[in-house]
Design a protein that fits this description.
alpha+beta; Deoxyribonuclease I, Chain A; 5 helices; 17% helix; 29% strand; globular; hydrolase; hydrolase activity; Endo/exonu/phosph_ase_sf; Endo/exonuclease/phosphatase
Amino acid sequence: MKLMTLNTHAWQEEAQRDKIRQLAHFIKEQSVELVALQEVNQGMNAPLVETCELELYAPVEEGVPITEDNYAYVLQQELQGLGLSYYWTWVPVHVGFAVYDEGLAVLSRSPIKEAWSHHVSQLRDYESYRTRKILGVRTCPQGEDTWFVNGHYGWWEDEEPFRGQWDQTEERLKPYRDGPLYVMGDFNNVAQIRQEGYDYILQHGWHDLYTLARERDEGFTVLKSIAGWENNKSPLRIDYIISHLPVEVKSHYVVMNGERGTVVSDHFGVLAEVADRQDGSLAHSIEEQ
């Protein structure tokens, strides 16, 4: 099972349509099971999509419109043009770049059986970028119900800090801890920095697919100064895929970085391949790390 996460920087990229096509081709070539996307924008005043075009869409919040330039919808249509049917969902979180509804999206090869959204920030102001949600979906990719949660979190030291957002995430995910459960996305916390967000996650019993992977690269998804990291000059690993249960991970690579896939955003993506649970015992236990 291949899982992918990418902060898309939607509609802020040059040649955006071409980059969406390139992303669709990559997803097809890699046979990705589920994709979590952040910064998924749609124009506030763009034309609405006809209901008949939303057969594979799983609504989360009542009354949320989908516009023709919704990044996830455009990507799903590109995949459909390649002969692939991806079920998908999207939830708005806050205003993006003054003119967009910015949100979170999930695309899945397996049908989405259930979906929800949940505020993890104390802030509920739709006009503020510090307002944060998570998006959860239940699918059955390996013959077993699995929860995938997509998030775009705040920074460790901020007016709306990561710690409180992660505490809210932990509380919301309590009902799902007995089964397969993954959290994916842009965590905005550098994995190399000790005693901040990354360590806080691990202290709560989560397993980073990067450290579990049999094969992996350096893992850096941001190499330069970008929005939110304006003074950055060092490679950062801030985009993760984590599991509540230890799992066997065949590989974990940075993608859409010019080496494995075309650059399509100011972030690179992450692609992890998790072995089927029926493949056998866990090859890389936590004790071996």
